[in-house]
Structure formats: C-alpha cells, structure tokens
Amino acid sequence: IDQGGCFETSRATTHDNPTYEVDGIVHYCVANMPGAVPLTSALALNHAVLPYALSLADKGWEKALAQDAGFYPGLNICKGALVHKGVADSLDLPYTPAPKLAA
Questions:
Q1: Distance between CA atoms of 19 and 39, rounded to whole angstroms?
Q2: pTM, to two decimals
Q3: Residue 98 CB: number of other CB atoms within 10 A?
Q4: 3-class state of residue 26 by DSSP
Q5: Which of 63, 65, 76, 100 is the most exposed place for a label (fewest CB within 10 A)?
Q6: pLDDT at 103 over 80
C-alpha cells in the first residue's frame, strides 16, 4: 500500500482495523504487517540480512558483488550510473547496465 496499492479500491488500513469490504471483496491493506509481531520479525530480518552485512563489511562492496551475484538486484547506483532498471524506469531516467565485477 506504500506504493499506492494493488487495486483501485485499495486504501491503507491499520492493525487495529485491518480489513474493509468493497463489492463483496474483503481487503487487507496494512502497510506494516511485520509490526504485528515486532520481535519475531526483527529476529527474522536480522537472520536474513546479517550474512550480507558481514560480507560487505569484510570484503567491501566491489569484492562482495564480484563474489556473490545476489547483491546485484540491490545495487541502484554504481560509479555514478543508475544501474537498477526498475528505478530508472519509474523515474524516467537513463539506465546503464551494472558492470560485472571480477573477483
């Protein structure tokens, strides 16, 4: 819902009042669903992100990217160029493919 919602009838809801109905269709549009279980979601996020953070800290961004292509989808700007196609398209800016870095 942060980006406007998936449907014409989408509107933001809260954990206290999470659903509403339009034309017989129940909508659930809570913007921050992990907020319902903050400790669990924080632990899950930490476990998912920590290996990447450690790799970046230990190797630096260029070596980390060269050794793990999984970093590329998170790369937006590289050496002054906009290298994320989705961001470029959404902002109507020039897109440059990200350079493949050697290990």
A1: 23
A2: 0.64
A3: 20
A4: strand
A5: 100
A6: no
Q: How far apart are CA 74 and CA 52, in angstroms?
A: 11
d(CA 27, CA 67): 42
Two tokens at 96? 């440059």
Using left for φ > 0, alpha for ψ between -120 and 50, and beta otherwise, residue 79 falls in left
Residue 1: pLDDT over 90:
no
Half-sphere exposure of 26 (CA within 13 A, CB side): 4
7: burial class by Cβ within 10 Å (0-12, 13-18, 19+)?
exposed
Q: What CA dihedral angle connects 16, 18, 20 and 24, to 10 degrees?
A: -140
Phi, psi dihedrals of residue 92, rounded to the nearest 5°: 55, 50
